[in-house]
């Protein structure tokens, strides 16, 4: 049997652990073919055979040894045809797609066309429905918390407000949990908009009492006043979001203008994605990989692996991509206890 | 209302997050009294009032600001009486005990005597039943994995076998997951004894192929041959376990003798307990603390908080202490895929 | 004897180690008075007595327990008078100023007015002349190198160019050494401008061969073409520098436009200043503090402590502030060996 | 020209940076031959050609890609002959030996026999004379300080004395500086023996005042009483030193017996050697490598590279191995200020 595996979308700590998990748990008569740069590798026919030696120790490395891209092979008829030709040419019996929404949607579509496909969910944002966690998320939260820990001393020494921007376009998980872990004094996430005035109320209360403040803000947060602002090219991107670094700078400016306090902004951006995964993410990636191979051996296709409590389970591919898992109000409310 | 809180047993990263969670989520009319050094504080009447200012930023610190001890107030009639007197004297309406088996057993007994008690489970070993994780565990696994990562380069450069000993008297969780995360080539845990000959088979296979090896061993592991050895004072402690550092040195010696390979042993011991908790453990501790306070406000006593998937729930105090959660065979088998 | 100590300018890991070093090495009959928020504390008369207990364990913390500011007491006659009144009022026999150029210039001026003053140099940029290193610098380099390490995996997985901006207005030390340590493929510092075309030559060579690239750029670097550009308010600050984040975004845009490669920018900014100092910086700060106190006891005033090889020495205050220590060409040339 | 390079003795973070520095700075017409496992590679003729691609990114890895051993080719006439034959067979014009005393002594002897040899000093103990620092040392101090930081919380929470053992047979540098950086309350190094009674005086003073204590002890420290104890096979090794782990356990036992305090011992051992080097050590290793190649190109043989202040210089090979650099009394006295 020949199994093609690929990683698509943004890179994420733990991808290599999944790859190693698949390769190491493959029975002897199963060949694993790594498809390079996501679905692109299948379209252009770029691949490499993966053996035990190729994956020795890779679970400790960030990124993905297979490379990644955002190529969608269903974008053009031409690409779809090439993909199907290459599946045949490479003799692939099964395809395991490791990736986010886009990657899994392609896998689901292939599955509905009769191909044997398995999905492994990947999102550093932790917003895949029907799984407790995805790998990479805990690493991002740790890196973010670490960075915020580090900013406390500067904010305190200078009596400043530091606004730190983390990832999260629609789901605020990374920002919320990194902020909670590192004791941010206000956390702003896309799910729960606030008006500038509400924000300033928190700012004044904190500054009066303690004289310094850390605000964690997700890139996708917009103050209520700006919710319907669309179109300022220089600040708003094609999705109607304030651009990377935009919201932190925006908040720093408006708070400084309105209160006179000394503010600074820091944008963590890509720092959260990279580097060696935490133990949790290495193990979760490994278990996902091993479980994906088990599904293959049981002939249980069209499914996605997922974490429920301490167990790895599988669910229909469609379920994972159906809805985004946003931060529930209850959980956000809990974080508010520590806004001060 | 006055609530007494205490931390008992071995220290664990995340204890301070629990304390902060309780204090910060307490309504204004609720006073929190910190009892010093576990149950001992209640026996000798040593306590301090805890306010918001006392817990500012402490969730980032290892250890416990309340101190800890292994004192069991039911050990003597005299101590029990003093404890009950102090509960009255301090005017405590509720007691929240944060600790392991021993601490929770005392809380359960107090509860059965009619006192209002809540338990928060604490074990770095992750062996409390009916909760997915306890705080401190992920930190220990990360510190352990980090240490093993670091040993790889020495083992490889010198062509050596390094045997690294981690915590785990009866449950091998820390050793198993740190070993899996860091790519140990053989993992030995109490739940699944192996004979020396089986171990040597792994050693020879690995050394022939790669020329170096990392073995992770739990302090409570005993080779099958030694299972019934009891009584050698110098090596076996009162519980019939090989002493701290004992099994690593034992394995290093016997492997070296029987194979001629160059071996070294490293005992991580207390390094795994200390220091700043990971984001996961800070958040879990925080959520436990907040939930314990919610139970108090709902009047839901005699219960222990627990994690199920992404939710904090509560279960009867007795359930948590009823049985140890050991590593299931399925999970151990998964780790074996990577023994090579 | 009463000694006033203060920390001025930007915060820096190791400041607390200096404070602890001074306090712990003070003889019993010497009182240490901490002046709050740099010279401002002396102008407004805000101070606190510092005892052994106040400095217990603080050398591990980032920032400064005394707070800091950029107040210059010689800016107005009024402030100067108040400062001199407060020196008298507080009964200060000696003043130890811990800070950069500005702070030390004030100390030197006080010294020339007849006050007993000692300086301890502080700059995260490592650009103080006549000292091998200043504390905080190694920490910043480590944090920077760590961040760049982490960006490698993302750049590689996506086949991208990541431009990472580090501190350094006039001196490129932090950028150069963090870049060298983390294997950046091109390093751009203020001391050695390059034309855009030269930069693009490096970019093309690297991308052709390896398909991804990390460029480390100091905030104060300007491509040769922009050297005389002054005045674009939105991008150039009062000193004629491209604003924070400016040069990284600028480079990302121009490289992307001119080569078509996928680029991203990351600005480390304040992340480099904060957090717990490395062992080297804790020790250097400690030794500086102890040596400053020795100078006081020997009556050797008007001097600044400095590091020469493994020894702490002292030099006249004026020498330290006389000239900036820039990256010498020889050293920059060495880094070029690894540009590929 | 063909240059043979090798790494000998204990592994050390930064070795790979030296190797990369040599390979990357070699002119095009110079071939670099890596000799495997120290001098052993030259005796048995095991080698590999090293190109730019082989050293890409290795400066970040601990250990040595060339492997290491303690083989001394002058131990037998037979080995010496084989070594000389292999030098001829491999066509080596120059040999660069990277290692400690033993490795450099061989290089010096080869040099005196007329071979062109260069030495790069390596010792994690920092005890090479005539160089300010050697690579690997700062990494070991950081890892040690980090570990001790982590032990503080446990010691404090339990009211315990923790004795932590670090490297240092004859020179106490690692122990002294890690202990100073992490705020150990007593530091014991081989250069300055103390009697048990003196130690107990420190213990009692500290415990009375603070109730917990961290003692850092070098493996080579012996209480004055034991200085002339030789021969107890189980505890004293061939060099008359207490065995690894011996002194920490010994101190823990004797302090517990004599004072009744709860004590624990932790042995850091090999943890200090491994893992990714700090930025300082990566750069120092790189500069050593580049400078060694410069010496080759200048024809300046029989020399060892060294660090003086911020400069890399070279000295005759014999000077480096002539004497050990021990901790001077002045420096030890400074550390005593913080014993409390």
UniProtKB/TrEMBL annotation, chains A, B, C, D:
Residues that hold diphosphate according to the record: 10
The site annotation (Important for catalytic activity and substrate specificity) covers 102
Location(s), subcellular: Cytoplasm
Q: Which domain of life is it from?
A: Bacteria
Q: Where is the active site?
A: 125
Q: Which PROSITE patterns match?
A: PHOSPHOFRUCTOKINASE (PS00433)
| Keyword terms, alphabetized | Cytoplasm, Glycolysis, Kinase, Magnesium, Metal-binding, Transferase
Please state how the activity of this protein is regulated. Answer: Non-allosteric.
Provide the residue positions that the database annotates as binding Mg(2+).
Answer: 101
Domain Phosphofructokinase span(s) in chain numbering: 2-296
Q: What cofactors are annotated for this protein?
A: Mg(2+)
What reaction gets catalysed by this protein? beta-D-fructose 6-phosphate + diphosphate = beta-D-fructose 1,6-bisphosphate + phosphate + H(+)
Signal peptide segment: none
Q: What residues bind substrate, as annotated?
A: 123-125, 160, 167-169, 219, 264, 270-273
* Enzyme Commission numbers on file: 2.7.1.90
Name the UniProt record assigns to this protein: Pyrophosphate--fructose 6-phosphate 1-phosphotransferase
Gene source species: Mesotoga prima MesG1.Ag.4.2
């Amino acid at each position: 049997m020949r199994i093609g595996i690929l990683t698509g979308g943004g890179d994420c700590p733990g991808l290599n652990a999944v790859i190693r998990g698949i390769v190491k748990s493959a029975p002897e008569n199963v060949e694993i073919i790594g498809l390079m740069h996501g679905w692109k590798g299948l379209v252009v026919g770029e691949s490499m055979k993966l053996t035990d030696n190729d994956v020795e120790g890779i679970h400790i490395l960030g990124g993905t040894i297979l490379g990644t891209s955002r190529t969608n092979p269903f974008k053009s008829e031409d690409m779809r045809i090439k993909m199907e030709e290459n599946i045949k040419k490479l003799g692939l019996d099964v395809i395991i797609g490791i990736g986010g929404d886009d990657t899994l949607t392609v896998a689901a579509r292939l599955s509905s066309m009769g191909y044997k496909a398995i999905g492994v969910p990947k999102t550093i944002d932790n917003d895949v429905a029907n799984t407790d966690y995805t790998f990479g998320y805990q690493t991002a939260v740790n890196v973010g918390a670490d960075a915020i820990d580090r900013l406390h001393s500067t904010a305190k020494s200078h009596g400043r407000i530091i606004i730190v921007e983390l990832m999260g376009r629609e789901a605020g998980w990374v920002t919320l949990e990194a902020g909670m872990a590192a004791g941010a004094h206000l956390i702003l996430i896309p799910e729960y908009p606030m008006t500038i005035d509400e924000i300033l109320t928190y700012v004044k209360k904190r500054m009066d009492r303690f004289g310094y403040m850390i605000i964690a803000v997700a890139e996708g947060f917009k103050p209520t006043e700006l919710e319907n602002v669309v179109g300022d090219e220089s600040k708003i991107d094609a999705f109607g979001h304030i651009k990377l670094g935009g919201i932190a700078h925006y908040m720093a400016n408006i708070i400084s203008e309105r209160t006179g306090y000394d503010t600074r902004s820091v944008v963590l951006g890509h720092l959260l994605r990279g580097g060696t995964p935490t133990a949790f993410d290495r193990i979760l990636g490994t278990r996902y990989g091993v479980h994906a191979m088990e599904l293959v051996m049981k002939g249980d296709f069209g499914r996605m692996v997922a974490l429920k409590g301490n167990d790895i389970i599988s669910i229909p591919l469609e379920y994972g991509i159906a809805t985004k898992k946003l931060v529930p109000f209850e959980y956000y409310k809990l974080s508010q206890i520590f806004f001060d």
